[in-house]
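Teaching soon. Got one?

===
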Amino acid sequence: MIRVMLPHHLRTLARLDGVVELQVERSPTLGAVLDALEARYPVLRGTMRDHVTLRRRPFVRFFACEQDLSHEPPEAALPEAVVLGEEPFLVIGAIAGG
């Protein structure tokens, strides 16, 4: 079971309260987790990645085990601690400015 923590605005959009727990059918990659999240909560499609290219949206970042996975390819494997449910997969809304 993979635990996903979303920023407040995405939890509000999807009407979620707390952490999302996902069962990923295929190999637990970055893209597979996002696919499962968007399949379970269709209202989130297009909020984290582009509808057509599936590239990460600007100002959205992905973290796991204190590592920034935002620039990793979708087929990148998730850290073992995330796959085992020991650590969450974090979706962070980045803020620009100084």
